[in-house]
Amino acid sequence: MAEFPRSNLPPIETAHWLMKSSTSILGTWEQPKEAAAWLGDRLAEYAPRFDSDAVRETTHLSMVVDSAVERLGWGGDVSLGVYLERPSFLSLALVTCSPNRSAPELVCPRRLASDCL
After folding, report:
1. What is the per-residue pLDDT across 15-48, written as a single tens digit (0 to 9) for each?
2. pTM summary value
3. CB distance 84 to 49 below 8 Å
4. Beta-bridge mates of residue 79
5. Beta strands in the chain (DSSP E)
6. Among 1, 14, 32, 79, which has the minimal tally of Cβ within 10 Å of its Cβ?
7. Is 85 strand, coil or helix?
């Protein structure tokens, strides 16, 4: 467990990202739509490399982003994993904090001018 916070491997529970070093944070947002827009940008960036045509479809990606807005809006976390061209796997997570719904004892690893979402 001592190595877990320094590892780049995704945790089994999404909320456990809050146990990672602040260097794991790629951004913070105040509103669910802002966080989901970042997620949409990452998905669009990697879509040409997705292993599955169905996952690459714009309609599917739009539904994923809309679902993220809804989930973040009620305080839930978002965790996605997509196979890329072999042998790669893309793991993306949006984690709410202050407090996290499933692990309220975990605090944001880093606070910027705006709180973590």
Report:
1. 988 888 777 888 889 899 999 999 999 999 999 9
2. 0.83
3. yes
4. 93
5. 78-83, 89-94
6. 1
7. coil
